[in-house]
Amino acid sequence: MKQGDMAKRAAADAAAALVQDGMVVGLGSGSTLAYVVAALGRRVRDEGLRIVGIPTSTETEALALAEGITLAELDGSQIIDLAIDGADEVETGTLRLIKGLGAALLREKIVVEASRRFVVVADGSKIVTHLGERAPLPVEVVRFGQGSTARRLGELGGKPVLRLDKSGQPRITDGGNVIYDCGGFAPIRDPFTLQRQLKAIAGVVESGLFLECAEQAIIGAADGSTHVMRPGVT
Fold first, then answer.
1. Is residue 108 annotated as a catalytic residue, yes or no?
2. Would the pTM count as exceeding 0.70?
3. Given 59, 108, 140, 206, which residue is catalytic?
């Protein structure tokens, strides 16, 4: 196993160990979450762990079903006990995040906001001093009038680039929208103001800024060890 994969698996195993019998668990998206889903699947089979998963993407849904994890859709009657998700950037000290390079940011944010607790899993390459240092900020935009919306993002300084899939066509999210990756906002020193500005643009559905929501970030290392980052601790 590659060192990067070892780090992801270490973080994933530590996060999966937080899940208790009877929990409703929000399951994020991405490569590290694939390891979380696999670890939960092992616990379901080996320990008889009973959980209900709320997946944030069709990809995660397929992985969880293959692992024998019971799934449900998010509705108003359910409270998610714990959401586990990866991140593209984790800001030291604040645990503010950039997410969305996997194009599932809207559903991920809905699940996080519906959860009592939110835990991030990542490897050390995702840690930054200020958001935007390594990853562009994804912004999910409705397809109608997307050129006009992109122009507004550009006027804010975002330098938006339409995300394309492997065939060169616009990457369509599970919500039926497109993604503009905005690298021009870096470094993001006032993410709350930026979030308000973005949400004020007609056509913007959501941004990849996840602010004041994670209780801890479990960071995996290549040697299989982990350490925990918490808000207010540098």
1. yes
2. yes
3. 108
